[in-house]
Design goal:
mainly alpha; 86% helix; elongated; membrane; transmembrane helix
């Protein structure tokens, strides 16, 4: 479970920095983080914490990219 938690964290961090593809990385990181949190509720504390970090960065990154895309479309 720690591997999927790490992948979700990496995708979340990537979603913060990529301009248009950040939305997709954020969605993938979000799905992986939710999957990891549900599977590792009582088993691995470290994997669950990493998945929560991946969830947070994925939501922030995808949300930031959606807002930036809306601003770009509405001001053009």
């Amino acid at each position: 479970m720690q591997k999927t938690a790490l992948v979700s964290l990496v995708f979340g961090v990537i979603s913060l920095f990529l301009s248009l593809y950040g939305i997709f990385f954020g969605i993938i990181g979000f799905v992986l983080a939710i999957h990891t949190i549900r599977k590792a509720e009582h088993v691995e504390k470290a994997g669950r914490r990493m998945a929560i970090g991946g969830l947070a960065t994925s939501v922030i990154g995808a949300g930031y990219q959606i807002v930036a895309l809306l601003v770009l479309v509405l001001t053009a």
